[in-house]
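Throughout our pipeline, every protein is held as a single compact record rather than as scattered files. Nothing more is needed to write down the fold, since each code stands for a local backbone conformation. For reference, a complete record is included directly beneath this paragraph.
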Amino acid sequence: MHVSVRALLLVASITACKRATPKVEARVAPLASDSLRGVLSVTGSEPMVRLVLRHAGGVCDVREAIPSGLSAAQGLEITVWGVRDDRSGALTPAGPGCGVAVSHFAVRSADSVAATDGTLCSAAAGYELRLTNGERRPLVGVPPALQSQRGARIYWVGPLDRAPSAYGVLWVGAGGGGCG
């Protein structure tokens, strides 16, 4: 009978612990505006594809708060600005991670070569890149494939005073939008 009393006490203590456990909310708590730098990649397969930013501290899920051509920056090192979410319970490929609702981003490099992004505009002497801060930088050696993309948001890998080592269109503008 002594064993039965122990078993009863064990069951009673487990039941008491279960009742004392507080409920955990499944909500994601938004944190303050933040920036994060890393390489953008796609993970998963249709229909469960998602964008992730691989950075020094791990992996963050990335969501666009405003459509901005972010998905076209796959494989590039970028800085994103937006609101980070605490996702300590969510699992990403690298384990517990975070999420970022991106309000805007900038391309920083491609394959460790510095890159600049902005709006491609026509200029008196050819073409220029209008940066997000409004500054205009002349471009030299604009590839023919980019020349028809006036008004598009592009990235340019390498110095702006010579032909790019790589380039791409992030977002197609409305025929010169942002060049005025």
Observations:
- The two ends are 91 Å apart (CA to CA).
- The first strand starts at residue 30 and ends at 43.
- The domain at 30-108 is CATH 2.40.50.430 (OB fold (Dihydrolipoamide Acetyltransferase, E2P)).
- The helical segments are 2-20, 144-147.
